[in-house]
Amino acid sequence: MIRLAEIGLFLAPFALYITWLIAGARTPRWLVWGTVVSTLAMAAGTIWFGLIHALPPGTTYEPAHVVDGVIVPGHAAAKPHK
User: Fold this and answer.
1) Which of 45, 72, 75, 78 has its CA 20 to 30 A from that of 11?
2) Coil, strand or helix: which one is 36?
3) What is the C-alpha to C-alpha distance for residues 32 and 22, in angstroms, rounded to an integer?
């Protein structure tokens, strides 16, 4: 079953393109450049966040679990040797 969010993500580029066709000639230049700069800043922030919060090499993510009634938060653990 396709979820509503997946349908929205699929249709978003088409909606943006139609909006651009309709309002493209009337849109002020500063708004277009502001949108471009904002999009680049969001992309740079996403990349920076991913690099800062990446797991160290040689580790895997161990999800949160309950030990003796206490919740142990998720964390990076050393890879088991085979």
Assistant:
1) 45
2) helix
3) 14
What does the block give as tokens for 23?
Answer: 């309002």
56 contacts 76 by C-beta, under 8 angstroms = yes
Can you tell me the distance from the alpha carbon of 41 to that of 44, in angstroms, rounded to the nearest whole number? 5
DSSP-assigned letter for residue 73: P
Angstrom distances, CA of residue 76 to CA of 2, 43, 67: 33, 26, 17
Average pLDDT, consecutive stretches of 10 residues, N- to C-terminus, the chain (82 residues): 76 84 81 86 90 87 94 89 71
7, 49, 76, 81 from 18: Cα distances, Å: 17, 32, 45, 54
Please calculate the CA angle 9-10-16 and round it to the nearest 5 degrees: 80
